[in-house]
Amino acid sequence: MEKIIEVKHLSFGYDEDILTIDDISFQIQKGSYTTILGHNGSGKSTIAKLLMGLLEKKSGDIIVGGISLSEETLSQVRNQMGIVFQNPDNQFIGSTVRDDIAFGLENNCVDPALMDDIINEYAKKVNMYEFLDHEPTKLSGGQKQRVAIAGILAMSPSIIILDEATSMLDPRGKNEINALVHQLNKDKNMTIVSITHDIEEAALSDYVILLSDGHVVDEGKPEDVLMKKDEIERLSLDIPFAYKVSEGLQKLGISITNQIDREKLVKELCQLHSKK
């Protein structure tokens, strides 16, 4: 697969003497759904800001779409990416939801004749169509997050960075947004970089980069990384629900493989039941 993001020996510190990100390297493949997973304070949100050029690296290199990130290339790199932050208040520009979603489209010089259809499409996808003429400041936290996500998705960037973007949503809202982003990943070949501590979200990604105290401590396919129970617990992360269930069933004498994917677990249980 083609690399779309390369991080090489990247270091950064908010304090001159303390490194928040310490000599890390990793690659993200084009069209993949990659999760950067870590506990609070592991440095994962700092990485999101570094990728967008919102923070200046101390050393190392960030290459996006073949372009090395620098002050001179910042606009080129940002044109390829959209980011949704944990706190959506930082992303609102317009006086209405409609204006806010339109802002990025206007900056990208989208034909005004096409704009309404695009705004309506993505407002519907995040269940905010009926709020298009509302003031963003009067929305709930979850509604604000949906609007922020719609604004980024409407611009159809080749890379979307989600920095704990569903953390303010209720379980139903979180599932709806995750399903939408996974669909965009498949249908439009968007590269998704999800910054999260949500182990269940990581279990559904293509690739996991596990972070702790500013270091990459493991990376690989979810089934290879997330089944290392001792390491996951040591990093103060939860064990995937499906893995807990499969372990519990094994203790009851049921012959079933360890799983991190709930759908695969249910499918295997159904197959066992059909053999009875």
TrEMBL record:
Pfam families: ABC_tran. It is a peripheral membrane protein. Keywords: ATP-binding, Cell membrane, Membrane, Nucleotide-binding, Translocase, Transport. GO terms for molecular function: ATP binding; ATP hydrolysis activity; ATPase-coupled transmembrane transporter activity. It is found in: Cell membrane. The keyword Transport applies. Belongs to the ABC transporter superfamily. This is Energy-coupling factor transporter ATPase. It comes from Massilimicrobiota timonensis.
